[in-house]
Write a structure and sequence with these properties.
By secondary structure, the chain is of the alpha+beta class. The protein folds into five domains: about 5-130, 3-Layer(aba) Sandwich (Rossmann fold); about 135-185 and about 460-565, Topoisomerase I, domain 2 (Orthogonal Bundle); about 190-250 and about 390-455, Topoisomerase I, domain 3 (Distorted Sandwich), CATH 2.70.20.10; about 255-380, Topoisomerase I, domain 4 (Orthogonal Bundle); about 575-695, no CATH class. It is built from 17 helices and 30 strands. The strands form nine sheets. Strands 8, 9, 10, 11, 14, 15 and 16 form a seven-stranded antiparallel β-sheet that branches. The protein is globular.
Amino acid sequence: MADSLVIVESPAKAKTIGKYLGSKYIVKASMGHIRDLPKSQTGVVVEHGFEPKYITIRGKGAILKELKDASRKVKNIYLAADPDREGEAIAWHLAHYLNVDENKTCRVVFNEITKQAVKDAFKTPRPINMDLVNAQQARRILDRLVGYKISPLLWKKVKKGLSAGRVQSVAVKIIIDRENEIRDFVPEEYWSITAKLHQEKATFEAKYYGSDGQKRELGNEAEVQQILKELAQSDFVVVEVREKERLRNPSAPFITSTLQQEAARKLNFRAAKTMSVAQQLYEGIDLGKEGTVGLITYMRTDSTRISPVAQEETKEFITGKYGAAFVPETPRVYVKKNATTQDAHEAIRPSSVLREPESIKEFLSRDQFRLYKLIWERFVSSQMASAVMDTVTADLAAGRHQFRAAGSQVKFPGFMKVYIEGSDDSVAEEEGLLPPLKADDRPAVEGIEPKQHFTQPPPRYTEARLVRALEEMGIGRPSTYAPTLETIQKRGYVALEEKKFVPTELGELITAQMEEFFPEIIDVEFTAHMEQDLDHVEEGKEDWVKVLETFYGPFAKRLEYAEEEMKEIEIQDEVSDVICEKCGKPMVYKMGRFGKFLACSGFPDCRNTKPIIKDTGVTCPKCHQGKIVERRSKKGRVFFGCDRYPECDFVSWDRPAGRDCPDCGEMLIVKNTKNGPVVQCTKCDYKEEPQDEEATADLD
């Protein structure tokens, strides 16, 4: 007979925990929050110390009745929501509803859902932590006041359906600031000179360094031509060769932001998808005979701390699988990245490194396996020895000019045997070793190649780059990154083009209004300071009501001023030259979640919409009549298809190159890789560097 009720958020988590606890415990799910502020009104009484007016969330009646009935049949009630502010708030609301004394030991938390971790947690229940609850309440009320006070103003002055929010407004501002940098960027010309040299039956490259012992930048073609004339009369002579070992250290285990960034780079996951799949891994997967097991630790964290038990298990695993040489002399400890880091949790890691990804692959979906493998490899590598690189640098002279050649190779792989961190930018792979060189050697010249370059503007933000920027600036916290990115797209303030954020006209308009009337809301430093204040509330160092009072006084004055001074703005749609085939009216450009599309100007009488078709200029390789055009799937992913669809059903995720393979005659495609676009055959191994027009094509 059960004598205890345990309440968690989700059925999957309830199922996993229920198997660990046995028949004396009833485990049920609240399905997230049970109470919240009402949607129809602000729900905050500012005059009474920012008192929140919570109501039961619509649709929760049956769940609450089930929880209430179950609570009457047991002696003990344990609230086991997630170990963060949101989880603490859920537990607090449940305690109120079920008449559980929040000061009694009713709260149970665990960082991983494994049998041992869960059983240990139930040995040490604690009271509800009101500092955590108040930090969550303060954030919720703060965001409600900003959203529910500014949004109606925007509806009245600009357009219905708009919204403003603390973190989302700053995120849009960051994207717009980057776009302005790109617009204002003036490219500057520069040149490089590469010498192809031959020594000991091997060819290597040396880059121009400078003249007369001084480093020199090459700014124009005239300079380069003069140097080339001088080089034509000179031999290349090795002046100095430097050899040394260089250590390369592993990356820290994942925190929420780095997991989202790396999953975007390596798995092409959106931030929301990463968190959804990670939640599944955390809550538990049925592993057959082993039963249901939580495969990773809690995935909303900004701490790189690792438990000594996990560290020792990993050390033994690395020693057994790779050898003692792959274990560092002392266990690796990763220092906190900044003052805003909270250390309540561990880093994201596998609950046991003994569950190698391949050993449980059959129990996981494709996405679950790929993300688990990424987390497992990152964590194991973080506890491994450094890689050792042999590097060689050679300085060469050609008359009064100096060149430099560099090479490296892996001497000892260390952590690189398991994992290497990805990059947002295309980077060259490790160079090979130079041929044997010594002072006074005179390598033969095979050729000298001058090349013109232009400086590039800063890149637009991808999801990964934006998450990194928000984290570095102290904006938001682990639980806010994914929903923030989703919100700014749903509102139409930004669009994803080639997987990069581009501000819309609406986004720029709203941000301009916010800058004029609510500058603090979109100020990075102000928002970061608010995050720190909320952290101080969580730590018990600040009173949550005082934090709200400090913010609301100036904000209320700004609001009053904006009500009087903000002018009404009418947003005009851009008219296209496309005529609606259904009603004959011109179609206009609209901005959606995945970029621009065409909509009938006769809306709402006519609701016709159509995508903007981009002609690639390539003839369909299947029917040889239609043109290949760029389209978007329902989820916004770019693909290429014949414009004669449905008569011709040709489709491809990759852009056809418009040429056939010279080896086998099959279609060539332009494939986007980490090191740039590559033209390759769809059937054989043929590859080539893309032509200019192919390299600049949309390779989303």
